[in-house]
Amino acid sequence: MKRVDWASLDAAGRKAALARPTQRTEGRVVDVVREIFEDVRARGGQAVTDWSLKLDKAAPRRIAITPDVVSEARNALAPADTRSLRIAAENVRVFHQMTKPSDTAWVETTPGVKSRLVWRPIGAAGLYVPGGSAPLFSSLLMLAIPAGVAGVRERVAVTPPSKDFPNSGGVHPAMILAASEAGLDALWLIGGAQAIAALTYGVELEDGVIPACDKLFGPGNAYVAEAKRYASALPGGPSQDMPAGPSELLVIADGSADPEIAAADLLSQAEHDADAQVLLVSDSTATINAILEEVEDQLETLPRADIARASLAEARIVKVRDMETACEVANLYGPEHLAIQTEDADELVGQITAAGAVFVGRWAAETLGDYAAGPSHVLPTDGGARTLGGITTSSFMTSMSVQTVTEAGAAVLAPVAARLARLEGLEAHARAADLRSPE
Fold first, then answer.
1. Closest CA to 44 of 170, 186, 179, 205
2. Three-class SS string for the chain?
């Protein structure tokens, strides 16, 4: 973990201190993704199958979420596990139902001229659920449930096959239950850039057809993140939700922070994968030292310690002068997750302008948000939080303005529009307005 003193750095030094891991954008990732997409565009489903066999050692497979399949998955888990998953699913559903955008009231800007915004679900959503070294069935809930609440007609969920569950066809039973709780009728076992290519072009596979999707959603590793970017840049390609790559957490801690809790939160993100990045920002050297000691102690008993240590090689410890500066650092970085563990945590929230999700105070563990609080944990990474928010129901919807004009309204507004059109040199526009004007 690299330590830096913020006050001693110039602009270039500060930029370097907050840089993301280089492997996220290295040329090899871009080249491999391009090769996969070009192959899938040319050969369709056979290319998806070949890349899946090469990279995941398994052909794509469709799992129908039938009552028998769900029952078998439920029997494979402890009752407490299934109960927890159901509670989490219900919290996610309630939050997104309560925050779903609704059509606005009519706004009359000129007598006889009224407008409003109406919301409609997108047609088909491609949902990517990470599942390589850890099957993130929680991400399935955080994507599929908001999409369902939004009313998306076709939700296509894909996830990499798991090598740890060969007897259940390569899928964690909790993933099956999550799909059932979200109301999905099927789950595709395909991972990586080839899965994103399949969702982009639409392909026919041995187990069925994956349709081309209108928008791509979900977090993933560097290859998945680049594949989503590549797909959204294609002519007529799908849009994407956000840059949602390897996980990030920035912790702001002062002298009142509990070192054990702060260290546990940092490690909770570091264990995701080697590309994950964590930052600790504090105005107290003693607090920094205590947290780092706790990190080392907790690593000793962490099952994924090797992954966490690889991630910690890209970690940053930033010493700042005060909490105001700590908030400035957080806003410059724009973290996916921001934990504020300070005496005046509630007050500091007002200074935060760029974060995917903010966890306020010692009791607001980022892990609670990851699994069960309600808001989606699919959040922008790589600084995307400076301009983007996380997944909400509105992510799966589009808004349209609807305008109605009476004859009296046109008589008032048409001359204005015609004059402005001619000022721009657009005569046809002006004539269309003139036809709505009084004789």
1. 205
2. CEEEEHHHCCHHHHHHHCCCCHHHCCHHHHHHHHHHHHHHHHHCHHHHHHHHHHHHCCCCEEEECCHHHHHHHHHCCCHHHHHHHHHHHHHHHHHHHHCCCCCCCCEEEECCEEEEEEEEECCEEEEECCCCCCCCHHHHHHHHHHHHHHCCCEEEEEECCCCCCHHHCCCCHHHHHHHHHCCCCEEEECCHHHHHHHHHHCEEECCEEECCCCEEECCCCHHHHHHHHHHHHCCCCCEECCCCCCCEEEEEECCCCCHHHHHHHHHHHHCCCCCCEEEEEECCHHHHHHHHHHHHHHHCCCCCHHHHHHHHCCCEEEECCCHHHHHHHHHHHCCCEEEEECCCHHHHHHHCCCCCEEEECCCCCHHHHHHCCCCCCCCCCCCHHHCCCCCCHHHHEEEEEEEEECHHHHHHHHHHHHHHHHHCCCHHHHHHHHCCCCC
Residues 364-390 pLDDT 10s? 999 999 899 999 999 998 899 999 999
Going by C-alpha positions, the residue among 219, 240, 212, 211 that lies closest to residue 228 is 240
CB 248 within 8 A of CB 277: yes
Res 336 pLDDT > 70? yes
How much is the pTM? Answer: 0.89
pLDDT of 168 > 60? The answer is no
Nearest to 97 by CA among 150, 133, 158: 150
Q: How far is Cα 378 from Cα 224, in angstroms, rounded to an integer?
A: 14
**β-sheet bridge partners, residue 320:** none
Supply the pLDDT for residue 24.
55
Catalogue the active-site residues.
336-337
Written as six digits, the tokens of 67 are 């009552």
Residue 126, CA distances (Å) to 94, 154, 156, 195, 241 in order: 22, 9, 5, 10, 10
What is the rounded average pLDDT for all residues in the chain? 93
Burial (CB count <10 Å: 0-12, 13-18, 19+), residue 329: buried
**With bands split at pLDDT 50, 70 and 90, how would you rate the model's confidence at 438?**
confident
Confidence band, pLDDT 50/70/90 cuts, at residue 178: very high
Question: What does the pLDDT look like over 283-335, one tens digit per residue?
Answer: 999 999 999 999 999 999 999 999 999 999 989 999 999 999 999 999 999 99
